[in-house]
């Protein structure tokens, strides 16, 4: 059974000993004037004690003991308890005011709907501050604000046609890092690159009901962390890759089509093998010009690994408007038909071709990994 830490209990307000005294004389049907007379004190002194304006000292405690028969220690302890409780109430109020000030600053930076959706924010102010500091891996408000001043984050992929609200991105990336720190996978061996891509291609081709779980299982077995965290509003981010004990990939699943999912996944995997294995501490935003080269490199490798160049040369002239032709090529090379159509559409800027079923078979993974 859990025990209560009495020392941490703070009353809503301190009870001064004069309240006990008032209860006692009322129970005895004694007036303040009568009590003052028997204690040989001015009535004003008794009145001030009852109102909490005057403390009970040793002399008064002994007089009360003599008149009321209640030990002097009781009154002295009541006075001491009042002083302690009063101080604790004051400290609690000061802490409340301070926490409100801290939370006011935090709220101006974070995206509340996002963190509420993820179950991070509760009705407990102090708990909210503590968990936000944990999410952002900081110990104080200065460190928290500093996170939003940083120019470099772990690699992330965004839609070129969409804008990203900076604070939303910072919240998403830091929450992803926090979630990733709680995952544990096998040891990573960069020499197993080909096996990783081959295994993932097979999972993508089959696109079974539990595809996201299968992707996670495969990547985990090769020492790569994988998680899904939906994006906040005004943050058209698709994915991020970074190092968290092991190489880590997180996708927002903003676009739930299998071809978009596959390309984003391979893009992030490409970052791991092209860049992160050589510098697992490097963090940056791909919006900056100097990083565009690495983004292009990841795109190029992802395209080649999804559909090898020699394969694409042979099939790019087929009739992609004919479903049976696409399905035949898909079966022959073990590449999901939607991935083939996606490549064709992008290269030819033609998105009006007949759509093959492109949906990812499972989206429950998102909820299970929040």
SSE topology:
Blueprint: H1 17-27, H2 32-39, H3 43-50, H4 58-68, H5 72-109, H6 112-117, H7 125-135, H8 141-149, E1 155-158, H9 166-180, H10 193-206, H11 211-221, E2 225-228, E3 237-244, E4 246-251, H12 258-276, H13 292-306, H14 309-315, H15 323-333, H16 337-348, H17 364-368
Parallel strand pairs: 2-4
Antiparallel strand pairs: 1-3, 3-4
Domain HTH cro/C1-type: 21-75
Coiled coil: 277-304
Keywords: Coiled coil
Describe this structure as you would to a colleague.
The structure is a single chain. With 370 residues, this protein is mostly helical. The chain has three domains: 12-106, 434 Repressor (Amino-terminal Domain), CATH 1.10.260; 110-170, no CATH class; 189-348. Helices cover 57% and strands 6% of the residues. It has a four-stranded mixed sheet with strand order 1-3-4-2, sandwiched between helices. A hairpin with a 1-residue loop joins strand 3 and strand 4. Helix 4 (58-68) crosses helix 5 (72-109), helix 5 crosses helix 7 (125-135) and helix 5 (72-109) packs parallel to helix 8. This is Putative plasmid maintenance system antidote protein. GO terms for molecular function: DNA binding. Keywords: Coiled coil. Residues 277-304 form a coiled coil.
Q: What's the quaternary structure here?
A: single chain
Q: Note the run of SSEs as H and E.
A: HHHHHHHHEHHHEEEHHHHHH
User: What is the average of the pLDDT values?
Assistant: 83
Structural class: mainly alpha
Domain tally: 3
**Overall helicity:** 55-70%
Strand content: 5-15%
Helical stretch tally: 17
Contiguous low-pLDDT stretches (5 residues minimum) are 1-7, 284-290, 362-370
Largest sheet: 4 strands, mixed
Radius of gyration: 34 Å
Strand line-up across the major sheet: 1-3-4-2
């Amino acid at each position: 059974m859990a025990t209560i830490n009495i020392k941490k209990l703070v009353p809503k307000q301190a009870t001064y000993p004069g309240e006990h005294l008032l209860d006692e004389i009322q129970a005895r049907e004694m007036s303040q004037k009568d009590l003052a007379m028997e204690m040989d004190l001015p009535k004003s002194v008794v009145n001030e004690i009852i109102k909490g304006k005057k403390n009970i000292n040793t002399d008064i405690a002994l007089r009360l003991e003599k008149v009321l028969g209640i030990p002097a220690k009781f009154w002295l302890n009541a006075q001491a308890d009042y002083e302690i409780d009063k101080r604790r109430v004051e400290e609690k109020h000061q802490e409340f005011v301070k926490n409100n000030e801290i939370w006011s600053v935090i709220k101006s930076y974070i995206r509340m709907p996002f963190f509420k959706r993820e179950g991070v924010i509760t009705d407990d102010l102090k708990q909210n501050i503590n968990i936000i500091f944990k999410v952002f891996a900081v110990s104080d408000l200065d460190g928290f604000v500093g996170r939003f001043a940083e120019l470099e984050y772990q690699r992330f992929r965004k839609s070129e046609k969409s804008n990203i609200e900076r604070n939303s991105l910072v919240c998403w990336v830091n929450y992803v890092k926090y979630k990733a720190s709680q995952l544990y996978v096998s040891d990573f061996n960069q020499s197993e690159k080909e096996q990783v891509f081959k295994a993932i291609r097979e999972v993508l081709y089959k696109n079974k009901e539990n595809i996201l779980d299968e992707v996670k299982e495969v990547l985990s077995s090769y020492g790569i962390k994988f998680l899904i965290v939906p994006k906040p509003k005004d943050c058209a981010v698709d994915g991020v890759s970074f190092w968290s004990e092991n190489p880590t990939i997180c996708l927002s699943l903003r676009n739930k089509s299998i071809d978009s999912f596959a390309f984003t996944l391979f893009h992030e995997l490409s970052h791991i093998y092209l860049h992160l294995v050589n510098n697992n501490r490097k963090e940056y935003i791909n919006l900056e010009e100097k990083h565009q080269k690495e983004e292009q490199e990841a795109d190029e490798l992802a395209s080649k690994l999804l559909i090898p160049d020699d394969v694409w040369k042979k099939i790019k002239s087929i009739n992609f408007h004919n479903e049976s032709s696409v399905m035949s090529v898909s079966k022959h090379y073990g590449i999901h038909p939607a991935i083939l159509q996606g490549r064709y559409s992008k290269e030819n800027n033609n998105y009006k071709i007949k759509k093959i079923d492109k949906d990812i078979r499972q989206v429950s993974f998102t909820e299970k990994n929040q």
